[in-house]
Amino acid sequence: MKNVTDSFVFLGHWPSAGSFGFNTDILATNLINLSVVIGVLIFFGKGVLSDLLDNRKQRILNTIRNSEELRGRAIEQLEKARDRLRKVEMEADQFRVNGYSEIEREKTNLINSTYKTLEQLENYKYETIRFEQQRAINQVRQRVFQQALQGALGTLNSCLNNELHLRTINANIGMFGATKEITD
User: Fold this and answer.
1) pTM of whole model > 0.70?
2) What is the percent of the chain where pLDDT is above 90?
3) Which of 51, 92, 115, 169 can bridge 103 by disulfide, Cβ–Cβ 3.0-4.6 Å?
4) Which residue spans traverse the membrane (predicted)?
């Protein structure tokens, strides 16, 4: 029991931990500042980022739907072209004597133009998707950068008062002067 009371008696005799001052260790303060900024970005930016990504997702889904509709139209055109091809083949049997080679050329051209149209529509669909994805990524990057900059400026403006600002400037001028004397 005496040891417990002795520990309380000696609490008043402990030396003080130190006085308040500036931490001049740039690496340690930058890590602390960076962690605070990242924490603020994550806390405030996740909702905005989520909304942006949801909007982008909807736009991309709409683009995919539009591309699928275009694909469906192309398939309909292909079916019409196949029907036309069947008619041309029937006519080819009737006119085989007069111009078999001419009919074959028309058939080949019709098939080739239909496949080219389908390829162009598929390429357009994939280009549109890639473009929308890149645009979404760029918008997200820009918003995140803007929010980070606004958060950092807000943090700096709220934390620095005039006296602290003057002390920081004076300390930096002193460090710059000491660095200049060393290099001279």
Assistant:
1) no
2) 21
3) 92
4) 26-49
